[in-house]
Amino acid sequence: MTGARHPTRMALRLCLLTLLLSMAPQAWSAVNCSITNSPVLTFGDVDPFTQTIQDATVQLNWQCDRGLFDSTANTMCIYASRGNGPIAPRQLSNPAGNPSLSFNLFRDSARSIILGQPGESENRGLSVSVSLPLFTFSTSGTVTLYGRLLTPLPANTRAGMHENLLINSRVGVRTGNTGQSCDNISNFSTSSTYTLQTRVNILDQCRVETTDMDFGTQGLLLNAVDSTSAVRVRCSNQTAFTVQLNDGLHAAGGNRRMRSANNDLLIYELFRDAARSQRWGSSAGQRAAGTGVGPGNVIKLPVYGRVPAAPGAAPGSYSDTITVMVEF
Question: Is 90 exceeded by the pLDDT of residue 258?
Fold first, then answer.
């Protein structure tokens, strides 16, 4: 009977030894935290003429792991690099060139505390309490970061995508307690890094304004009468556009006409050049063209008008309304 018990005890001891050896590598690992998604902070499509603040948010997914003998109460510190350019404010750039658009990233919904990282002029992080109680070796969650695109946008803002990759944004762990501060840390040990994409798409947009054309008060129209006005166009920087004028309310036979209160009609014409040889209309070859220089910069396009001699015109006050259309 005695000889039969000893092999059983040896087998138990060997199994226990195997179990301890299999746990040893995890037992000596450190507490590690990382961002597990590929976060993108996007302000979406923005009209360059906007004067209102543009806000956006981005969600980070995180995961923390610990070994058997590591701290159960920890603070994860999430930071964000400046990317390309300064950090206060950060910049969104267009591949075609300047100007850059100013924005920033914040850790609070009030957007009062800029999220930076050690080594930057803004050394403040987002503190996340991470509890890993006994026999819990992994946990995960989400946090929200807050972005703000600063307005008004530059007067020469370009249309197109503007981006900044906040590469080497850092994540670290302060062990021993939850709720620790992540601000102004100099001896920071990085647990992992991630990249936060930030971007905004500036739309191709144009605005148009006009001034009235006044031919004044005339006697007998023995000679042609000339006048000028202007179409004022503002478009996103480098946005190509064309301007067309319709034929008005009373046109007939290819002629623009003004009408009086007595329904008398008077022929007139509008041109793109001072010599009044290039008709300004809506068909191909009759439109004015240009390229925008930014929503804050006006491109003035003169309109040249002429009333031909009409000695038989009836007295009266004549008028017409022209519709101006900008295509871009």
Answer: yes
Q: What mean pLDDT is predicted for residues 118-133? A: 96
Q: How far apart are CA 314 and CA 312, in angstroms?
A: 6
Q: Which range has the worst mean pLDDT, 19-28, 59-68, 184-193, 227-236?
A: 19-28
d(CA 187, CA 233): 55
Cut 0.90: pTM above it: no
Residue with tokens 């956006």: 56
Give the CA count within 13 Å in the CB-facing half-sphere of 183. Answer: 7
- The SS3 assignment for 26 reads helix
Q: Which domains does the chain possess?
A: 29-202 (2.60.40), 206-327 (2.60.40.1090)
CA–CA distance, 244 with 229 (Å, rounded to integer): 15
Nearest to 65 by CA among 54, 56, 76: 76
Four-point Cα dihedral 245, 251, 255, 259, nearest 10? -110
> What is d(CA 152, CA 148) in angstroms, rounded to the nearest whole number?
12
For residues 40 and 38, give the distance between their C-alpha atoms in angstroms, rounded to a whole number.
7
